[in-house]
Amino acid sequence: MNLDTLKATAEAMTGKGRGILAMDESHGTCNKRFEALGIPTTPEMRREYRTMLVTAPGIGNHFGGAILFDETLRDKTTGGKTFVEVLNAQGIVPGIKVDAGAKDLAFGEEGETVTEGLDGLRERMQEYGKLGARFAKWRAVYRIGEYMPTQAAVSTNAHALARYAAICQENNIVPIVEPEVLINGTHSIEQCYEKTQYVQQAVFAALAEQGVALEGIVLKPSMVISGDKATGRAGVEQVAAMTLRCLLSTVPSSVPGIAFLSGGQSDEEATAHLNAMNKAGPHPWNVTFSYGRALQHAAMTAWAGKKENAEKASNIAGHRAAMNGAAARGKWSAAMEKAA
Ligand code: 13P
């Protein structure tokens, strides 16, 4: 392990008001989103769509990294260059999703999962490194319920996240450690705080146990937020304040970057929350975004699988990148959305 390399990569991914584009949807997830918009679920359409994203105007100013799925890491854009080349040319670090998805946890509470993919991971990581990936991602998922997440779900997922992170670092690949506490449910923001803190504490204990160097990871957490079906949902300032309070209680200052997932928030909500957190800075870590849906949804809808819409969709993707880049500096305002 070369800690200087890991530190430099983590800083390139999350520093200077730049965030990470999550475009690593598995075929299943990508197909679901395409089908909802009537887009054919073919490799050619995925290539066209993802080419539109990585060639959006100005994204090199706002993205420090982009997370790819296996197919895309190996693929060429419609322009003939590889995705890795197109990203590197814009100063965007290419990364790879390496987990094999969240699977039912035996004897868990309803809907609880454990993320799989450790078998053969060292060999896959070595190949991904050769293909140009300099960071990786592994997502663990936790549901909030009266008895959830269970201790079994919390400890099993923490252990897997930590083993994955250690294998990444052994290969000089920065692990994005992603414990996602789902927004789905009627829970209050206080309940979300308590469960999120519990999950994050377990993750950092497991990382220590596996000898992971915190200076060479990026944490990708969910925000502390009211359930999507809760009544009287907390406002922007409360989400920002409680998320920061939680992270300050669990995340050592040696971690270089925290890049949030959007987790089903609307585009503008996700931007506003990130902005409020950065306005309250400085913080011990870079505080930025690694959104999937909140960066892509509007662009995918505008594209709708049609070549003639690609330029418009690309502009929309570039706009969301710029808005979140501003929020990563605490310089976003709602007026900037309307001006676009
Ligand atoms: P969302 O921002 O859509 O939650 O996706 C982020 C991600 O990478 C999930 O693993």
Structural descriptors:
binds 1,3-dihydroxyacetonephosphate, 340 residues, globular, alpha/beta, eight-stranded parallel β-sheet, 10 strands, TIM Barrel, 13 helices, 14% strand, two-stranded antiparallel sheet
Explained architecture:
The chain is of the alpha/beta class. The chain has a single domain, classed as Aldolase class I (TIM Barrel), CATH 3.20.20. The chain has helices at 3-14, 27-36, 43-54, 70-73, 83-89, 121-131, 151-170, 189-209, 236-250, 267-279, 293-303, 310-327, 334-339, and strands at 19-23, 63-68, 93-97, 102-104, 113-115, 135-142, 174-181, 218-219, 257-260, 286-289. The strands form 2 sheets. An 8-stranded parallel β-sheet has the order 1-2-3-6-7-8-9-10. A two-stranded antiparallel ribbon has the order 4-5. The chain starts with a helix and ends with a helix. The mean pLDDT is 98. It binds 1,3-dihydroxyacetonephosphate. Residues 22, 139, 178, 261-263, 291-294 line the site of 1,3-dihydroxyacetonephosphate.
Question: Topology of this structure?
Answer:
Elements lengths: L2 H12 L4 E5 L3 H10 L6 H12 L8 E6 L1 H4 L9 H7 L3 E5 L4 E3 L8 E3 L5 H11 L3 E8 L8 H20 L3 E8 L7 H21 L8 E2 L16 H15 L6 E4 L6 H13 L6 E4 L3 H11 L6 H18 L6 H6 L1
Helix pairs in contact: 7-8, 8-9, 9-10, 10-11, 10-12, 11-12
Bound molecules: 1,3-dihydroxyacetonephosphate.
The site of 1,3-dihydroxyacetonephosphate (13P) has 10 residues, from helix 11.
